[in-house]
Amino acid sequence: xxxxxxxxxxxxxxxxxxxxxxxxxxxxxxxxxxxxxxxxxxxxxxxxxxxxxxxxxxxxxxxxxxxxxxxxxxxxxxxxxxxxxxxxxxxxxxxxxxxxxxxxxxxxxxxxxxxxxxxxxxxxxxxxxxxxxxxxxxxxxxxxxxxxxxxxxxxxxxxxxxxxxxxxxxxxxxxxxxxxxxxxxxxxxxxxxxxxxxxxxxxxxxxxxxxxxxxxxxxxxxxxxxxxxxxxxxxxxxxxxxxxxxxxxxxxxxxxxxxxxxxxxxxxxxxxxxxxxxxxxxxxxxxxxxxxxxxxxxxxxxxxxxxxxxxxxxxxxxxxxxxxxxxxxxxxxxxxxxxxxxxxxxxxxxxxxxxxxxxxxxxxxxxxxxxxxxxxxxxxxxxxxxxxxxxxxxxxxxxxxxxxxxxxxxxxxxxxxxxxxxxxxxxxxxxxxxxxxxxxxxxxxxxxxxxxxxxxxxxxxxxxxxxxxxxxxxxxxxxxxxxxxxxxxxxxxxxxxxxxxxxxxxxxxxxxxxxxxxxxxxxxxxxxxxxxxxxxxxxxxxxxxxxxxxxxxxxxxxxxxxxxxxxxxxxxxxxxxxxxxxxxxxxxxxxxxxxxxxxxxxxxxxxxxxxxxxxxxxxxxxxxxxxxxxxxxxxxxxxxxxxxxxxxxxxxxxxxxxxxxxxxxxxxxxxxxxxxxxxxxxxxxxxxxxxxxxxxxxxxxxxxxxxxxxxxxxxxxxxxxxxxxxxxxxx
Length: 731
Known about the structure:
Shape: globular
Distance between the termini: 92 Å
Structural class: mainly alpha
Oligomer: single chain
Strand content: 5-15%
Number of strands: 14
Helix content: 40-55%
Largest sheet: 3 strands, antiparallel
């Protein structure tokens, strides 16, 4: 350990880590021939460290200590960061409060950034040594990082809990590692915030009562996912072709294309042949983008010049020249204007494209209107974002796992059972894994598999093993995607607008987890599919109170209760509008709704207090919502187990839940059918009729059974239609 005498005789060299090879000490591998950062370097470059996740930004791979102006504090920062990377170092092990597990480079980059801000703030407070740091200064810095100030110094908001925790954590680290520092250190008796943890100081939510990440709202999720699937399936193949067109145009018509002649006299002969071909094929001349037209006007072009929108540079390169020179206009203006009058001018890409069926199914339209190059590239980017959104929402992969996907990640489809195809994609699990991640596979549905295939085809350099997406900012991409869907381009294709609302990768993963957990055995299935931490599964198996699975199940039950209450309220509103239920239990449900409606009738109320608001209605409907169970083609109102047909058939009259899989809703006195169930019964009748038509004359038993099933389906459809038809006629 260093001594006060060593500090007073500071010579800008660390007593502990002098001359250390940073990557060697931290156990980080580098390719052969790569420059290795040394402890004395002002910048530690970890860009080429083997195994760093693609999610880690380039800027966070370079540690810049030069931003700390005081050389003593710069040395403190280096010693602290390297100590966090090397918890097994001989000088770090004896420290009682040091980390026992090496921190990730990403975490260390965040600590260095906060430490740099802290030292700059101390200098602004006139502090010259860490020995001057006391509890008052610690509280002042936490307050400084807690609030958001405007340009006048007025508080306009608060920083997140994470920001406040980082501010407190850096002070705690300076206390925990004080014996290690060579040049400066805090006083031995400093105990900021009474020794509390940084999370406690920042008042971080514990996360044990509920998951902090909310699911995506249904009103946002449905149109967003519908638009993403439509773009992937309907526009994806055309976007691939558009990408090829852009690349070919870049190869032949770009300013950077090779083989073009430099400046010289006007190539009249070449232009004459080129323009004659445009006239022969009636191909419009290429159009300039709006910002290039603005540049021409700024350079003095006449707004009424017929050649103002014509991309003469593109024509020059098609004629074999590197660019179009203004001195060529006297010789070429006449031919250009003649061809312009014959063929016109139009954007280069998407001129003659295939038609696709609109998302609402009402018509067929060209999949895109003509586009400039930048617009074409942007549209391809929108389709790529749709593939990312589909992949994230339906697979539930973390951001780090999405960014580790590579070209060739699709595994060959398997068919374990005839007619059942299993799709897999390979990536890496990064969270909670050693540096480099752990190879793993995800079983996905076919739309996800096709989205990955489309992303591979849209890749700029589709070489096997290349990163499929690399590092991307989903919030920015989603904003562009939503704006496009809500724009005239998206509305032209019949896409439903996406309302405002937060959407990020964590929320999409959370939404899928809840949807999976609704299903039988879904809690455990979501743990396995989403690659959750093993201890969470252990808690579920051990049935520990407050275990992660128990919390998720409780939250799922809460969502299910809310959903049931919404369904009961919707059916009550349908009743008030004359849309009645059908089925054996329809009379009981209608009487219940009539009873509730009477309570809400202000003219029939004897007491001054009346109940009119949705909250009062929900209070009256809550008990009925608690007994609602959803069948595939009916609602089950499990009010009396002794009347449940499924329990009678299973000889389990004391069960507290219905056996939905054995439900015969056409005969059960507690089942109802509603207009939302009609398509299911109608489809069942249609399929049964098809099977009946395919049966031979000798299969009498099977025909009798299917005929009864067919008659029942028709009867249910007729009952649903009859109830609502009668009501409409009476109205």
